[in-house]
């Protein structure tokens, strides 16, 4: 009895100790059950820490290798997987950006596109419809629009885009949850949408914030479903327009029934009548995009409004009416056809773009085993997936008033599904039977058919291999071992697509630590810029200046037109021109020639002044490229150290070299070309998302030591070794 009581007390004490230990350890001290096999690859603990930082952050900050070693490599990685570190420094820098937390509806309201501003001004009788594009005094016309925007408290949409780009760069530089930011970039690129397609541009900030970032370490099917239902993706790949054939007509009732008078909203939504037509006709005309993708507004909108849209044959099915109501009501949008594709059978409003890309790019891969028939059948399953009417102008504007009158409860009672900005409309759905990859859909499942399809794709064996290959390419090497991919794919399948578990399998595998994987990845321009800023502990006040340099080096983030996303292999980033631009960037950064970005090179070395340029090369190379064998780098860079005209020579050569433009030549591009940035009249001097050549290098040798040191560090940043990660 005493023994039993003693054991009971002991057990209680042990449980209490465990609970208290867990409480005091908190998220900063995660418990791990795995060990990294880096010693088998001949790496020291410090070398292994540097490798982890090269792969799972945007580059080590000064002293970070020591921090990781002191904490323990496995604990540091588990902490990054938890992604819950406080980010006070980052959050303080983000306070100035008032648009980054706006909902889609609020973003459209405060930062409307150019054609919306024009139509608002027409509706409010500030300008006449006939005056658009025909004003004799363009400046006076534009000043009128500008004053109207101020009174209404609205701003041009390019300001929203600029804030979004700025915050992205600041997150990459300063976030303590680095793995979350790296994976946000990876998954955004995987589920790529682009500012080059104007209809989706306004939704991209919320897409990254609400769809991508919160799910980067979730299960894959959750991320896939969230992306499929997001307005940005629905517009980018046109699924919001995809409509099934109308249901067969119902036989007329032999008995006359007196029905109560219904308003057009109820007729259209409940019964599929043509009551929508009058409301759609009242939508104000909207100037169209220019050929290069820029939205016109004010006096420049004449071409869009002067030429009417082609006449369309009368349509009566409710699906066609809903499609017209949900589309942006610009002449160009009405006339726009789906992305040209010889295999895209655009019958009854069916659009196959998303169905094709969700198989080829998001899940199974191009060799995943699906056929064109599967694509068509999947497109039918996904009909009716569209966007809830958000704004009174543009996106679904003709539908908004109708939906507001009917009410969400009445909609849901009729089979509609409304979740956030997503709307499933049953009268647009293909009710016929479909077969995708041998899986039968009876046509009665409605919205759930689409969910089931995406679940099936997310758990397909080809998806496991395709996703794990992309992860291995991103985090291991351009040509990862098949043995590693197979292990990761098995975990993906066994663990229900759990991204965390897949990453653990990868990082605990010997292949990850192999000498063949060390420094075998080439930094993209984005990675180069951010790792340089982090490595030099720079103070970034104007991140948009860094964006301009990324663009100059060939990566205009968020503007890659193809749904493939940016390539993740070195040959797409490195050529003679790009190397010159990278060296030019390194020199500009170290020599304090990038406005709004400041570095303190002396502080990096605890204010110890190097005795010579050669000594500075050795010291600072070790500081920004820790735990590497740099003997070859010293020999390569030594001849450049004492050339006083080096910066001028590099800048001149870089200016003459063509800017690299990575593309995916075997994949069609989506949408219009050019920037979808609307500039409000009179705002020509406001910074816009366009690349401008950095200022020409000028001699600023006020202090010989500082000049020497900045040239040495600039050369290091531009060196071939620093391009590796």
Give the arrangement of secondary structure elements.
Elements: H1 2-25, H2 45-56, H3 64-71, H4 73-82, H5 88-94, H6 104-110, H7 114-123, H8 138-152, H9 157-174, H10 178-190, H11 198-201, H12 204-212, H13 220-228, H14 231-236, H15 264-271, H16 276-281, H17 302-306, H18 318-326, H19 331-335, H20 353-362, H21 372-381, E1 385-387, H22 397-406, H23 408-413, E2 417-419, E3 422-424, E4 434-436, E5 439-441, H24 447-458, H25 461-475, H26 482-494, H27 499-507, H28 510-513, H29 525-535, E6 539-540, H30 543-552, H31 576-590, E7 597-598, H32 601-604, H33 613-624, H34 631-637, H35 646-656, H36 704-718
Antiparallel strand pairs: 1-3, 2-3, 4-5, 6-7
Helix pairs in contact: 2-3, 3-4, 5-9, 9-29, 9-30, 13-24, 15-22, 20-21, 25-26, 26-27, 29-31, 31-35, 31-36, 33-36
């Amino acid at each position: 009895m005493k023994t039993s009581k003693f054991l009971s007390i002991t057990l209680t004490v042990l449980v209490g100790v465990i609970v208290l230990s867990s409480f005091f350890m908190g998220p900063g001290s995660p418990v791990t059950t795995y060990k990294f096999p880096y010693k088998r690859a001949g790496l020291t603990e410090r070398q292994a820490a540097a490798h982890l930082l090269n792969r799972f952050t945007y580059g080590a900050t000064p002293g970070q290798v020591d921090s990781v070693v002191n904490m323990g490599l496995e604990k540091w990685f588990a902490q990054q997987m938890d992604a819950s570190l406080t980010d006070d420094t980052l959050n303080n820098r983000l306070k100035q950006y008032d648009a980054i937390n706006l909902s889609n509806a609020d973003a459209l309201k405060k930062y409307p596109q150019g054609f919306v501003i024009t139509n608002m001004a027409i509706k409010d009788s500030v300008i006449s419809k006939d005056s658009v594009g025909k004003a004799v005094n363009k400046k006076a016309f534009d000043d009128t629009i500008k004053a109207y925007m101020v009174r209404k408290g609205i701003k041009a949409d390019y300001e929203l885009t600029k804030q979004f780009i700025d915050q992205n760069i600041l997150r990459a530089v300063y976030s303590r949850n680095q793995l979350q930011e790296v994976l946000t970039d990876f998954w955004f690129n995987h589920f790529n949408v682009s500012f080059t397609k104007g209809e989706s541009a306004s939704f991209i900030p919320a897409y990254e914030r609400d769809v991508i970032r919160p799910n980067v370490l979730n299960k894959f099917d959750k991320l896939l479903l969230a992306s499929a239902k997001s307005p940005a993706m629905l517009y980018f790949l046109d699924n919001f327009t995809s409509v099934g054939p109308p249901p067969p007509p119902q036989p007329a009732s032999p008995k006359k029934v007196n029905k109560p008078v219904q308003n057009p909203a109820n007729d259209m939504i409940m019964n599929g009548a043509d009551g929508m037509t009058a409301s759609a006709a009242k939508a104000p005309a909207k100037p169209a995009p220019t050929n290069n993708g820029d939205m016109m507004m004010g006096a420049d909108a004449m071409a869009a409004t002067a030429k009417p849209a082609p006449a369309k044959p009368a349509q009566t099915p409710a699906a066609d009416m809903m499609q017209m109501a949900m589309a942006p009501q610009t002449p160009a949008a009405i006339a726009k056809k789906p992305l040209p594709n010889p295999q895209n059978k655009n019958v009854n409003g069916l659009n196959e773009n998303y169905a094709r890309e969700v198989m080829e790019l998001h899940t199974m891969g191009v060799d995943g085993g699906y056929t064109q028939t599967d694509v068509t059948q999947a497109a039918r399953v996904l009909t009716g997936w569209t966007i809830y009417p958000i704004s009174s102008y543009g996106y679904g504007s003709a539908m908004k008033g109708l939906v507001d009158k009917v009410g969400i409860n009445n909609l849901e009672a009729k089979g509609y599904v409304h979740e956030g900005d997503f709307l499933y409309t049953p009268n647009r759905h293909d009710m016929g039977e479909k077969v995708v990859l041998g899986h039968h859909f009876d046509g009665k499942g409605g919205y759930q058919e689409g969910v089931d399809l995406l679940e099936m794709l997310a758990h397909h064996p080809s998806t496991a291999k395709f996703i794990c290959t992309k992860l291995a390419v991103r985090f291991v090497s351009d040509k990862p071992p098949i043995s590693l991919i197979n292990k990761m794919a098995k975990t993906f399948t066994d663990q229900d697509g759990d991204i965390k578990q897949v990453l653990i399998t990868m990082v605990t595998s010997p292949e990850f630590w192999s000498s063949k994987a060390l420094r075998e990845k080439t930094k993209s321009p984005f990675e180069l810029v951010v790792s340089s800023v982090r490595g030099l502990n720079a103070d970034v006040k104007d991140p948009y200046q860094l964006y301009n340099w990324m663009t100059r080096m060939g990566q205009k983030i968020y503007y890659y037109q193809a749904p493939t996303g940016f390539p993740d292999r070195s040959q797409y980033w490195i050529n003679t021109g790009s190397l010159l631009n990278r060296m030019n960037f390194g020199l500009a950064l170290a020599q304090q020639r990038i406005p709004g970005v400041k570095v303190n090179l002396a502080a990096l070395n605890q204010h110890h002044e190097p005795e010579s340029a050669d000594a500075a090369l050795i010291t600072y190379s070790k500081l920004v490229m820790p735990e590497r064998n740099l003997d070859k780098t010293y020999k390569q860079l030594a001849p450049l150290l004492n050339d006083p005209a080096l910066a001028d020579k590099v800048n001149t050569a870089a200016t003459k070299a063509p800017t690299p433009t990575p593309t995916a030549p075997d994949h069609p591009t989506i949408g219009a070309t050019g920037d979808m940035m609307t500039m409000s009249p009179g705002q020509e001097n406001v910074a816009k998302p366009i690349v401008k050549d950095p200022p020409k290098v000028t001699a600023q040798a006020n202090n010989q030591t500082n000049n020497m040191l900045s040239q040495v560090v600039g050369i290091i940043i531009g060196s071939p070794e620093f391009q590796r990660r």
